[in-house]
Amino acid sequence: MRFLKKHLDSIYFYLSLSFLVGLTCSKFLMSVSLILHAFLFIIAGNYKEFWQRLLSNKWLFILLAFWCLHALSLTWSTDLNEGWDGLRVRISLVFLPLLYIGTLSLKQQQIITYTKILMLAIVVVIGLNVIHYGVLIQNNLALDIRQLSWFGSHIRFGILVAFSGVLAFNLWKKQLISTRILTAYLILILMYTVYSQTFSAILSASFVMLIIGYDLIRFTRFSRRIGIGFILVVGITGAIAIKLIATPNPACGTFESDDEARKAWALRSDFPLDSLDRKGQGLTRTAERYLCANEVALTATSIQKLSKEDILNIENGFTSRHSANGGIWSRLEELKFELHEATDPNGHSLLQRFAYWKTAWAVINDHPWLGVGIGDINREMENKYNETGSTLKPENRNRSHNMYLTTWMGVGVIGILLLLWGIFYFGWIGFKEQHLVLLAFSVIVFFTMCLEDSLETQAGASFIGFFIAILCGQHARTAWTTKNY
Length: 485
Known about the structure:
Blueprint: H1 2-6, H2 8-25, H3 27-44, H4 47-55, H5 60-72, H6 80-103, H7 108-138, H8 154-173, H9 179-196, H10 199-217, H11 221-246, H12 258-266, H13 283-293, H14 300-305, H15 308-315, H16 321-325, H17 328-340, H18 349-366, H19 377-388, H20 403-432, H21 436-448, H22 458-472, H23 474-481
Helix pairs in contact: 2-3, 2-7, 4-6, 5-6, 5-20, 6-22, 7-8, 7-23, 8-9, 8-10, 8-21, 10-11, 10-21, 11-17, 18-19, 18-20, 20-21, 21-22, 22-23
């Protein structure tokens, strides 16, 4: 026991480092490291110091109040099993900051180690993801870009990859990595982010680049030029993307002769043209959109001229060669189709989100003050889908995919105010203290919560809870900014 207490700080640090690596690739590693950390604190921890640290970080009471409000909402929930599951997931948001801030004596060298290990883990996981996805493509098994993420949540890993850019920039500022390494790393994560087609990750990467540009502008004249260049590139790229999405494609009609098209298709494929493709979409429309993307006539002759690869792409549900190959062009094409042509929201992520938000807002209008309780969100959403005659299929009827709406639905006005208070508080501290990593984290959390139920999954709650712990505590802020608090 004496040996354990002597080396407890180091053990705590390595266990938290293991948790960080687990964020990139392994829920099991996260769970084991966290359980061991808590167990060691229980049997050998310094309880007095623990409470002193917690009391010196009074903002922790915002997190506690947020979680306790969800727990209290069980009293007006009817589905207690669903409610307990929601509380279990959200506990990471509170437990990680409490445990880590109360036990970790973060120093600058440890912060550096966190960053370097995370960068290395991300590079390795990116490589494994790309290799695995390449094998799927070769074997015609790649039907959805989310299969790119081999080890866990596609969205959460994409956001973590984007956020790591500002961590790498922080190392460069401290002259701990060279400009070449920083440039290579930023190029790698930007290429992966674009290829992953995850809008939340692309949005996060854009904010990271803007914050890096902002910080560079504050340096020397040369750095200002680089910073202005960063901002201009992000701004111009965003403007071009918006312009492309806002411009509808030329209208895509239907086959000149359905009978001739079916006969020509039957000679090329075992899939009947009037059946569904492998994504569950109407094969006829998939084929029509594919031919339109190739800028050829919608005739039997055009079907006959398709290559074997084209036939396979259509069978797999891809509407163009771009979408089959993945990348940003695929996502832009899909967004254009959803905004300008699609009438059925099923199978289209953006239109489905619009339906989720509309339904969630209708639930909030019925229960604006206290919400429906954390256990009844699913039930009330389903009831509202039925009540409004939603065209979404049962398998596509999900929660709001917006953390603010989900919180408001679950625990009412006080819950949404606590959530916004916490995020804006962290963002203000990051801006005021020039803690750019905390600023980037706060901005990313704020905007991605508009698109995701970030605290509804273990991966999301753990990601946010972990970085709150190592970015916001007094010891942590001293290590990041070299200021004393």
